[in-house]
Amino acid sequence: MNVSGMKKTLAPILMLFLSAGYATAQNPDIDILRRINAPNPVRQTFWLETSNSVYWVPPVYAVANLGYGLIGKDRVALRYSMESALSAGIGLALTGCIKNLVNRPRPAQAYPDIIGTYIYSEGKSFPSGHTTLAFATATTLALQGGHWYISVPVFSWPLAVGYSRMRLGRHYPTDVLCGAVIGIGSGLLSHWIAGRIMPGTTH
Predict the structure, then answer these.
(1) Is the dihedral of CA 163, 49, 91, 23 positive or negative?
(2) pLDDT one-digit tens code per residue, 147-168
(3) Which residues are catalytic?
């Protein structure tokens, strides 16, 4: 089946899944967002920086492990680099496909009178790509660390990113929730794949 045919097949199924809870979830969705949304998102410097951290945290971690692995001939570090890149790639690919299928407008587009944002742009809201990438990276880090005292602080970052996307008026709560699910799933899948490609490369 080609991409066009797959899109035509999956779109009705996905829309059916989403519409099942849309009527009851839409009001709570916007109500929760109104409570979180900042009065003036442009001045939310901390949350803007938190949101934008997804642009540099995942690549820095992947490149740092790659460099260390190549220089030190450390197969564990090389596996970590591959795994983190794979996790981000899977998450963003899934998010992009779902965005195109659902085509949900951003909150500030749908509710310009009640939702503020730091930048008005046309785009697809569901799911949140920032949240997906943050949770995919955090899941990978937690699995590689293997201890709860690593996982707990690590996951504070994607939670903050998800909150920032609502605080800045860029996403609904359901966008963030779905992004978190996709991100965690991507991290788990990439961990499994990396283990099959490079077995025996864990501490």
Answers:
(1) positive
(2) 777 778 899 999 999 999 999 9
(3) 130, 171
